[in-house]
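How a chain folds remains the central question behind the approach discussed here. No coordinates are needed to read the tokens, only the vocabulary itself. For completeness, the protein is quoted in full, as a sequence line and a line of structure tokens:
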Amino acid sequence: MTTSKDSIFFLQNYCRFEQSNYVWILTGIVRNKDNNSNHEHDKWMRRLIIRSPEDILSCYNDIKAMGNAKGVTYRMYVSLNARDVTKAFFDFQHTLITHSCEIARGDAQIQDHIKRLDSVWKTVLLQTHNRATKRFLLDVDSKSEELLTNLQEYLDKITKLHVVRETVSGYHIVFDACDTRGLMDKFKDYPIDLQRDSLLFVETWEGEK
């Protein structure tokens, strides 16, 4: 069972800040598959920006505190890749210009959009073209240790492995971007899914209050 200490240690090692333009996105969500489909928290999601190593603990604790409704199962993920704030900034400028035009036209909905600019900024950061690193994720929907070993051995020969993280139903394997055609052909009959920019599993927890 993953503990808070394990998750924090994992985030501190995974979220690196080699460049000043790097940030990471920590996300807490409720999945229908983990809860009653009619539950009022079905659409719950919170995203926090990790701007420096010093932010990791506070962001982790804040997500856990926000997701604390009794009887609800939550999941936490971190962005697979660091996000490039410089690239994202220019994208965000386009959004602001668009909103300026909408204000000038008297668009009735613009005030609601402006109120959610913090959410828009996070969405812009998560666009694939605004990633700062190039890591792929292999989502393995199996607990087979033999399959996991075979995948790791294959990947070790063609790229750099960053982490293997156990998930609810299997594993997330993170590695540097590479030609994956041979990999996907060799393991085409196994429950694996390749994701080029996604979310990496951190932990799941139950709300208490």
